[in-house]
Design goal:
The chain is an alpha/beta fold. It is about 50% helix and about 15% strand. The chain has six helices and four strands; from the N terminus they run βαβαβααβαα. It has helices spanning about 10-25, 50-55, 70-85, 85-90, 100-110, 115-125, and strands spanning about 5-10, 30-35, 65-70, 90-95. Strand 1 (about 5-10), helix 1 and strand 2 form a beta-alpha-beta unit.
Length: about 130
């Protein structure tokens, strides 16, 4: 199963860094990582059309796991869902997990598994550091 992780943030530098971390650890032909931080003009902010364009162009992807960090980045990810066709919406999964830890755990798990509930569970469980 071809999967994609969409990284949404106000900063392209943040999503580029997370993408680089995941790609170094999760090398898989069945996983694509997309850095969707910032606006289309390269400024700080978020842009739902960047997300929609990726989903529209990635025909072979069967599941899009979407991670966002703050405020309007989350709203952009939600708005992008509303802008998609129904068939695309069925493949678009908003994951309620931290952008860095959650996307990283999802990327590692998705590189070796097609079990979407398991991938999402790993993303949601990722924030615990075990510090006491």
């Amino acid at each position: 199963m071809k999967k994609a992780i969409l990284l949404v943030s106000h900063s392209q530098k943040i999503t580029d860094g997370i993408k680089e971390m995941i790609e170094q650890m999760a090398q898989s032909d069945s996983l694509e990582i997309y850095s969707l931080g910032g606006t289309s003009e390269g400024e700080l902010g978020s842009d739902p059309t960047k997300i929609v364009d990726v989903v529209n162009e990635a025909d072979s992807v069967e599941a899009f796991l979407v991670f966002a960090d703050l405020g309007s980045a989350v709203l952009s990810a939600e708005l992008a869902f509303d802008m998609l066709e129904e068939t695309q919406q069925s493949k678009y999964i908003l994951v309620d997990a931290p952008l860095v830890e959650g996307a990283f755990a999802a990327g590692i798990t998705a590189s070796v598994s097609d079990d979407l509930p398991h991938i999402i569970a790993e993303a949601k469980n990722a924030p615990g550091k075990g510090w006491e």
